[in-house]
Amino acid sequence: MFEDKTYENILNDMLERVPSDVDKREGSVIYDALAPCAYQLAKTYFNLNNFIDLVSGDTAVGEYLDRVVVDYGLTRKPATKAIRKIVTTGSLPIGSRWGLNDTSYIVTGNISTNTYKAECEQYGELGNTYTGTLENIDNISGVTATLTDIITSGQDKEADDNLRARFYAYLQRPSTSGNAFNYREWALNVPGVGDAKVFPLWNGNGTVKILVINSNMEIDETLESVVYDYIETVRPIGALVTVDSPEQKIIGITANITLDGSFTFDDVVSSFTASIAAYFKELTFETYSVSYAKIGSILLSTPGIADYNSLLVDGGTANTTIDETEMPIVGTITLTEV
Question: Model-level pTM greater than 0.90?
Answer without folding.
Answer: no
